[in-house]
Structure formats: structure tokens, C-alpha cells
Design a protein that fits this description.
CATH architecture of the largest domain: Alpha-Beta Barrel
Mean pLDDT: 95
Number of helices: 16
Bound molecules: ligand TNX
Number of domains: 2
Structural class: alpha/beta
Shape: globular
CATH class of the largest domain: Alpha Beta
Strand content: 15-25%
Radius of gyration: 24 Å
Largest sheet: 8 strands, parallel, barrel
Distance between the termini: 26 Å
CATH topology of the largest domain: TIM Barrel
Strand order of the largest sheet: 8-9-12-13-14-15-16-17
Low-confidence stretches: 1-13
CATH superfamily of the largest domain: Glycosidases
């Protein structure tokens, strides 16, 4: 029989191995509560999915993710009257304990019932359901069943409302398909926000119709001198809509007043001296600044932010504000004051890297904390006045930090972040002198000076983004590395089936 291995005939003839149903304890992020029963439910050729009204898009999505590996038709039944005969039911039903993204999942021998207040909750429940099926459910082609789900009940809702990932498309440009692939992977872990770092010294990545050279010239290169690129407004809208179909909000960032060489190179009039610098393809930071004293700077920003606000249904625009080492303190404070107001004029809420907390902030403006120590006087002072924060400590949450000295990609200025390190902090207790109620959640930024392909993105993001997702979603009481690492290990076979190039950390007992 051994000599047959590797031939197509042997692969097809291999009998389906009996396999145990996935235990509820292996879901990432851990649900708020889960009880396992002795019954099992098996997805079969005739299984129908009931999803009417607001639940329909989620029902269609569930069917679309289950069809390839099962080969089943899985019709989505939109007629309310027939629901009782459909084994899988997605229902919108009021439940005050579940909030906007919570859900209840009940599995017994005859049915799988998912209920939530909102479609977003059904969508998060669907991610849990996918993880309760064998890893082969994630294959792109038909696999052997049986497709058995352990019976039981889950009631779940997030600890933090904001659970984000950031992708730097400025240092290296990534096309629409790569962004969509990353969106699909983050959605599995209930990440609900994708922050796109659209502009930096090395590139401007979104067409702005009123200032077209930003993209056509400012987007024409990247770190290392490659061709770069930019999203047309139609492509950006496509990303926004795709993310929305996964209940993920896009947050566009225009980094300023520093990190602006691509813009300054594109339009000479934006420079204080009226001279456009050359395009930049290196990896230094802190050398560029918009001209705070010039009126044209604010006309420029009003046009740019106006166009981006019109393209972006989500409530936020990220104004950057980090590492503005070529802007005086006084100019920086003036600038942040004006830009927040421009964002507000276009109906959006500003987010900025926590450096902005040295300026006077609008009550609605949110800070994103990136430093490596939890104590910061400006942040504490802003928090006293009510500012909320998103946490991305560079030594814990940065996805571009190397795992070990041997990691071939990434940087190490904030330290090495192995799997255990990425999990070993509590977002609710992290920032000194800031109430947990002022922490909106967590975000894992992936800076891309050294990141070039989707596989590179995946290798740096996984397992760490799944770990951060657990810190953001799961209740503090679930926090325990020894139990978590086993749960995380169960994701390994799934990533393999999905073709996700993850870092197989020796700290994790991979299944
Ligand atoms: C710092 S921390 C940056 C980015 C770099 C990153 C590399 C922060 C808000 N900015 O400009 O890409 O380090 O790790």
C-alpha cells in the first residue's frame, strides 16, 4: 500500500478517517460561555439554511463558505414560513445581553440555531460555527465528510467594541485581492476594523481627484524602488464594500504632518520653500512635514479629507500624527487642532497616533497608543479630559516585529514578539492612569518596510493577530496562556488547509 501513496488513485480511494467533533474549548477567540452536550449535528446533502430579511446576507455568506469543501448545495431559504423545516436557522431576535455583535448558538441533533440582535452578531456566530467543523471545511475543493458538529450552547459577546488590524499599503503597495484575502482571514477571528495606512513618505495610495498627482506621481514607487501603485476610487469603494460584507469597518489614514514626503514630492506648493523633494524609497522616519503656516495646506487637507470622507461610510478618519520630528511643537499643536476640525466638518471622528495627545483634542478624537511603556504624561492628561484610546503597544501588538532574532522578515526596534509575549497583557489594565472604560479596544498594526507579499503578511499576522483578537473579544476571566496555547494550536491545521503561511512558534502545541 505504501508504494501507492502519492498517486491520484490512492488519494481518491483513501477512506474517510473517523474523527471526533471539534470541542467547544478550541474556539478562538474564546466565547463568553459555552456548554457542550452529548448530541451531534451532521451537515448533509439536503441541509437548508433559513435566513430571511436582515439575516439573508449572513445566510448567503455561511452557505458560500461551507459549499466548496462539502460540495453540498446548501440553499438559503428566505421565506419565513418554511423556517421550521430548515435545520440551520439564522434569526434576528432581540436579546439585551448580546449587544451589537453578540450571538447565541444552539446545536442539537436536529438543528443549528443562531440568534443575534443584529446581522453583525450573526456573522460573528457564523465564524464560531465554522471553527466547530473539522479543519477540512476550509478547503477550497470538495473533501470527505462527515461534517459533524458537537451539540451544545454558546452565548457570546465581545469585551471590547474595537478589534482592529492595520495594513501599511504605503511602504509596499498591496493590490485589492491581497487586501480582500487578509480581510477574510481577520474576519475568522472576529476582527471588525481594518485601518489602511494609505499615505507615507514612500507612497500615496488613493486617487484624490482634486489632487491627482498624489497617486499618479506620489504613488509611483515604494520602499526599495519598486513600482508602487494606488487604488482608484472605485477600487477603494470595492475594498470598503467587501469589508462591510464581512462586518469590518475600513478606517482610512492620511498620515500627517510628518510622513508626507510622497505628497510633498507631488506638489511643490505644499512645501514651505516651494521646492518639491524627490520621491523617497528608503525606510527612515521623521524627516518630512507639511507646511503648517501655509493656507494651501488646509485647502489641500479639506479637499483630500472631503473626498475620502465621501468614499468612506465608517465613522472614522485617521490623521496619523506620529513621529513628526520635523515639525516644531508649536506648529504640531496648531496643525492637529486644525485637522481635527476639518475631519469634523466632513462629519467624521478623528483618530490619531497618541502623539496627538500633546495637542488640545476635540472630545470625540481618539488616540491610538503605540509606545512600548504604559506610562505617558500627555496620554494621562488627555484621558483626564475624557479622550478614549485604542491600544497598539509596539512591543506587544506590532505585527511587524520579529518573533525571534531568526525571523527573516520584520523589525526589532520595539523588541521581539513571540507567541506568548503577544498574549501576555491585559488591554483593560495596560495604560497607567487611564480608566478601562476609556479603552475602546486593540489593534495590530502591520508596517510593511520588509513585507512584500500576501504570504509575508500572513506569516507576520498569524498567530499573533488571532491572539490579539482573543485579547480584544474574550472576557478577562478566560485569560490563561496554558489553556489558550492549546486552543491556538488547534488553528494550525486550519491555516494549513487555508493556505495561510503562519509562524509555527515552538511555544505553541500545534495540533
Ligand atoms: C514606527 S510607531 C512607525 C512607522 C514605522 C514603524 C516600523 C508609528 C506610529 N510609526 O512609521 O513603519 O515604526 O515598525
Amino acid at each position: 500500500a505504501l508504494t501507492m501513496l502519492g498517486t491520484a488513485a490512492a488519494a481518491q480511494a483513501a477512506p474517510a478517517k473517523p474523527r471526533a467533533a471539534v470541542p467547544y474549548a478550541s474556539v478562538v477567540p474564546a466565547p463568553a460561555s459555552a456548554t457542550q452536550a452529548n448530541s451531534t449535528f451532521t451537515l448533509a446533502g439536503g441541509t437548508r439554511i433559513a435566513a430571511s430579511g436582515q439575516a439573508t446576507p449572513v445566510g448567503n455568506y455561511l452557505a458560500s463558505v461551507l459549499r466548496p469543501a462539502t460540495g453540498f448545495a446548501l440553499p438559503v431559504d428566505q421565506s419565513r414560513v418554511a423556517h421550521a423545516v430548515d435545520p440551520i436557522q439564522l434569526l434576528i431576535a432581540p436579546n439585551s445581553s448580546l449587544g451589537d455583535e453578540g450571538y447565541q448558538l444552539t446545536v442539537n441533533s436536529g438543528s443549528v440555531v443562531l440568534t443575534a440582535n443584529k446581522p453583525a452578531g450573526l456573522f460573528e456566530g457564523v465564524q464560531t460555527l465554522r471553527q466547530l467543523l473539522p479543519a477540512s471545511i476550509d478547503a477550497a475543493t470538495k473533501q470527505a465528510g462527515p461534517w459533524t458538529i458537537q451539540g451544545g450552547a454558546i452565548s457570546d459577546h465581545p469585551r471590547f467594541a474595537y478589534r482592529g488590524a492595520m495594513l501599511d499599503v504605503a511602504r509596499h503597495f498591496f493590490g485589492v485581492d491581497t487586501v480582500k484575502a487578509y480581510i477574510d482571514e481577520m474576519a475568522r477571528y472576529k476582527i471588525n476594523t481594518l485601518h489602511l495606512h494609505l499615505t507615507d513618505d514612500q507612497g500615496w495610495r488613493l486617487m484624490i481627484n482634486s489632487w491627482p498627482k498624489l497617486a499618479t506621481y506620489g504613488g509611483s514607487t515604494e520602499v526599495g524602488g519598486g513600482a508602487g501603485g494606488y487604488y482608484t476610487q472605485a477600487q477603494y469603494k470595492d475594498i470598503v464594500a467587501y469589508a462591510a460584507s464581512r462586518y469590518i469597518t475600513i478606517i482610512p489614514e492620511v498620515d500627517m504632518p510628518g510622513h508626507t514626503n510622497a505628497a510633498l514630492a507631488s506638489y511643490a506648493e505644499l512645501n514651505c520653500n516651494g521646492v518639491a523633494p524627490p520621491l523617497y524609497t528608503g525606510t527612515d522616519v521623521g524627516f518630512s512635514s507639511l507646511c503648517v503656516a501655509k493656507d494651501i495646506t488646509y485647502k489641500f487637507l479639506d479637499d483630500v479629507i472631503g473626498e475620502i470622507a465621501a468614499l468612506t461610510p465608517g465613522p472614522y478618519i485617521h490623521i496619523g500624527g506620529d513621529e513628526s520630528q520635523s515639525t516644531t511643537d508649536a506648529d504640531y499643536k496648531t496643525f492637529v487642532g486644525k485637522v481635527q476640525q476639518i475631519v469634523a466638518n466632513h462629519g467624521k471622528t478623528a483618530i490619531g497616533w497618541h502623539d496627538i495627545s500633546k495637542a488640545a483634542l476635540l472630545p470625540s478624537t481618539i488616540g491610538q497608543y503605540w509606545d512600548t511603556t504604559p506610562t505617558n504624561a500627555n496620554v494621562q492628561a488627555a484621558a483626564k479630559k475624557g479622550t478614549h484610546f485604542i491600544l497598539s503597544p509596539a512591543n506587544l501588538a506590532y505585527l511587524d516585529m520579529k518573533y525571534t532574532e531568526q525571523t527573516p522578515l520584520g523589525q526589532d526596534w520595539a523588541g521581539l514578539i513571540e507567541a506568548k509575549t503577544a498574549y501576555s497583557w491585559d488591554p483593560g489594565k495596560y495604560l497607567t492612569g487611564v480608566n478601562a472604560s476609556q479603552i475602546n479596544g486593540v489593534e495590530g498594526p502591520l508596517w510593511t518596510e520588509t513585507i512584500v507579499t500576501l504570504a509575508n503578511i500572513q506569516y507576520m499576522a498569524f498567530p499573533r493577530l488571532a491572539e490579539l483578537a482573543e485579547l480584544g473579544w474574550s472576557q478577562a476571566a478566560t485569560h490563561n496562556w496554558n489553556t489558550f496555547k492549546t486552543r491556538l494550536g488547534a488553528q494550525g491545521p486550519r491555516w494549513k488547509v487555508q493556505g495561510v503561511d503562519f509562524y509555527a512558534s515552538p511555544q505553541v502545541p500545534w495540533a
